[in-house]
């Protein structure tokens, strides 16, 4: 069966595909905020209805958090599992959006048409490229070229607490020959990429408590310890002057990249100044002596994602706050152990707290880094399909982000994962004015159609 | 004219006085938040109506911010100016209040009955003690024992931006023989106090900007500078390990207290551990080698009153924030110059900002410290009146708080100020569950009645 008519159908059906995507984008499925719980359920139901209408055996599956979507479709070839997530990031600061984040629209941009809205790139627009590829195959041929299971979660942006338990309980149903994930970027706007290594993630929230209540800084200031001052000292101490993370044992399991990979990455001609220039910066801020791609793909980090204490409204309030808080995350590489690191971090930070203060920790998500076995035939087939669609050799690249599920698939289901995505570095995911290029959406769907064809060939 | 019937009238009129105070407390006159602008105006109008009904020539006076209240009443003796403020602090965190902050009520407490609500102690309850004293004198004798001007502002909790310009433009109308302020505390629940030295205040808000927008910490983390990390390093660097403030020149103009004052303060038997124990702390956190009262009354401080950056809501968001903010204040003593210190702080902090970040400053209020000339006869008359009312020798004390207006009265109107207040250290001003002891309110009014009588004698 030639893929050509499937590709043609994707092109002629584009407006209808966009209308479907917009329906999904309008649902504010912010998983981290309990206020949007019903919206998350609504997004899952919408996907089940869409997949069922295409002939998938589709259903939502309850979890202690937001539901999973699981859908099966028979086919002649190998069994592929496609994973995506229907939840999205919060939208604050809302005032920095040029429009309602949940009222998507097509806009013109210097680089071509873009779809603007929360979740367009991360991950609703990307997951719909795979669903539209399946729709075109079924519409054109009555079936799919391989057996497909679609597995979508609604907690990816909030640490995926239900994912591993669900995966373990349903291992037989979810295990396939290869996993496919569409949640990454092109290398650049012309070069398609298969991501073969991902950083892991460890999230920690710390609360330093000093006095039993907020105090007047005139009445108590100078005598009473201020927990915001303690917290600032902790956060400031997490990096040394060379940009290295100071948590004891932090670099255990952090490998140097191989000379071969270094040569391939050097060949990509990454322009750190240009990359940073796009967001108003100029100087690489990571460890002294590391290249830009190393800082992004193969070196671990420690970041403050949030910090707050005391009065943060308009004007001034001379309060000495009772508590100070920070959300801190680590990007992990190699074989860094998130559990060991969490313990080490907690011990290290606790030792910095003076006798008059206490500290409490709340663990958020954690996942080790992933490095794929690219000898699996799916990688070469995908590379070939992508190269044909984009007209330029597809690259094997690293990613600074964390897609923990790829590691879980390996650990719990024994599956390798081909991470193939069509996002771009300027998509502003997790930021105001998120977008997804219309061309990414169209050629993404075409790419998956070709990959499914190659897999089934 | 004996003061006895005036005191008796205060006691018999107590319930009506409380009803008046509660009317004023129910107006949420939060000056720092523009959302409460109309409420501030309403509080001013309420006071004018009350004073006019007593026979004062009273009116509100417009300013670029919240209105002033000015009221005059003739009398035979010297001319006293009473100052207070009708604005209150914000109430957040609201969830820590046991009841609506603006629905005051009388509650039982282990130490006796208290009036609970925002502004009960700071400063509506205190300013009404003076007004009730005037009311009793007028009701009982038809007049006041001295000439009284009442001057109330509505911006004390937000840096008093209109105060000095208004004072300069209306110097002739506002200048009296002595200023009286009721915005301080008893030394303890038994010992009345006249505060003779006050710390000054300097407020600064800093914003560190890194990337031009919030970034995904996976995509950019490790390469892009995080302004929250920069801010934490700045805040952490403001104190050394001995608790001293590191801003260059900070200790210029900070005097050692005289041996006489040290002896008097030592005689007060201040219990630092007990004072801190009341708010869940134990260890004095100020400069190594200083006594507790020095830390509170005669040493300058630097405090973080607020800090915020990135995602601070429920759950976790792996954002690398574009900006990080802090509200920082300094308590000043001796002849520390707030203007010089502001410049020194800005230079010092700017030098800590890496090339890829920028920093912006917003100045909030500033005032130098005040030390009163206690040789003015009003101090001895007030001490005598207080000693008679409370049955224990009144003390001359310092205060860690800042009441900038006392310095302005000296600088711009040439008046000394007797600071006499009836608050207590556990009043939780600026905190949830603020209260004012019913006995402070009753004996405060009686104290002012006696002081007015002594002044006019």
From TrEMBL, chains A, B:
Keywords linked to the UniProt accession: Hydrolase, Metal-binding, Protease
A GO BP term here is: proteolysis
Q: What Pfam families is this protein classified in? A: M20_dimer, Peptidase_M20
Q: Which SUPFAM superfamilies match?
A: Zn-dependent exopeptidases
Q: Report if keyword RNA-binding is assigned.
A: no
Give the matching Gene3D superfamilies. 3.30.70.360, Zn peptidases
* Residue span, Peptidase M20 dimerisation domain: 198-354
Task: Give start-end of the signal peptide.
Answer: none
Gene Ontology molecular-function annotations: metal ion binding; peptidase activity
Q: Which InterPro entries match?
A: Cyt/Met_Dipeptidase, Peptidase_M20, Peptidase_M20_dimer
Record-given protein name: M20/M25/M40 family metallo-hydrolase
Q: Which organism is it from?
A: Mangrovicoccus algicola
Q: What is the lineage of its organism?
A: Bacteria, Pseudomonadati, Pseudomonadota, Alphaproteobacteria, Rhodobacterales
